[in-house]
Design a protein that fits this description.
Number of helices: 2
Structural class: mainly alpha
Distance between the termini: 58 Å
Number of domains: 1
Order of helices and strands: HH
Shape: elongated
Helix content: over 70%
Radius of gyration: 27 Å
Largest sheet: none
């Protein structure tokens, strides 16, 4: 006659575990992306502040006849890193937009 057990089959339990694992991985991915976004914004702010401050120090030193090349180079390097960070963010955003699939159909 067969078994009278009517509980979930083993395959269903495996499917549930896989779904839960995927959900955990998705939540961890969202949390990591949010963390990196916060780090990027803080880094951008710090680089902008350092570039501005070093540029002002270079201008003041140049006017006073003191050596000004070091603060000017720090300012330029910070500005270049800030621009590269912004460029990476734009490329990443553009790549994300191209990954979106339209479900409206052809033309």
């Amino acid at each position: 006659m067969g078994s009278m057990y009517t509980g979930p089959r083993d395959e269903d339990a495996d499917d549930t575990e896989l779904r839960e694992e995927r959900a955990r991985a998705e939540r961890a991915g969202r949390r990591n992306r949010a963390s990196w976004a916060i780090v990027a914004w803080v880094m951008a702010g710090a680089l902008a502040l350092l570039s501005y401050d070093s540029g002002g120090a270079a201008v003041d030193a140049h006017r006073a006849g003191r050596p000004w090349l070091y603060p000017a180079s720090v300012s330029v390097i910070c500005l270049l890193v800030l621009v590269s960070l912004a460029g990476r963010a734009l490329l990443r955003r553009r790549g994300r937009r191209q990954d979106v699939v339209s479900h409206r159909g052809p033309g």
